[in-house]
Design brief:
Blueprint lengths: L2 E4 L13 H6 L3 E6 L5 H9 L5 E5 L7 H13 L4 E4 L14 H22 L13 E5 L12 H20 L1 H4 L2 E7 L5 H9 L2 H11 L9 H12 L10 E4 L7
Parallel strand pairs: 2-3, 4-5, 5-6, 6-7
Antiparallel strand pairs: 1-2, 1-4
Helix pairs in contact: 3-4, 4-5
Length: 255
Amino acid sequence: MEAIASRKRINPPSGRKPKRSRREARGASVVINYGWPDLQGAANEVGNSLHTPWIAVEADISTVDGPAELVKAAVDKFGKIDIIVNNAAQATLAKVEDTTVNLWDTTMNTNVRGAFLVTQAALTYLPPKSEGGGGRIINITSEVATSPEILQTAYATSKGAIATLTRCLAKDLPPTYGCTVNAVSPGIVKTPQFLGELQKMCNAFLTQIFDARTPVDGWIGLPEDVAFAVSFLAEERASWINGASIDVSGGMFFD
């Protein structure tokens, strides 16, 4: 999923233990993207957990037109864009000899081209630099960009490209648009997609390996851990952080 947000002056919900999805929205109006009709329920579930205005938009980020459709829907609803989170990803596991052109292209189009096109389409709707700027572009890369495992050639290559794209945009965009561009690099995160692949690769065996390699208790992170890093970079006070990548892996991976 991609996410686009427009800041509003809304205080976060009170309570000792609010759901993190609510807390990490931090008062922003949120546009949640889903790529296919069967994901609408999941997108609505996320939206319904927020205490802030939101919409869910179906747009296939792997296509040429999908990114612009998403941006248009966001602007039509909220009028502007303050924060872009490029999170759409195609996770693929395949031997090099089994990686078809279609698999390679789908991975690159979703993970790399999609992020570029969403960003490109949204630039003119970011807060103008002449008015102080303050836009935030946050790309989700992965620790596999620098520490790949077997069967990850296409996926790791795409995430390496996102890491480089982040650094390039961090040089090119701020002088003109007054924004910042950063990345969050998750390690192993407990998502349905990952757990499905993990089951194929022998859950118990890998659990032992990963647990031994993670300094922080608990070998697997939660989506909320990644969301916290994203929301930190999206803060207005994070204006001096640009071109950075935050590792979110419990110390299993770092440069």
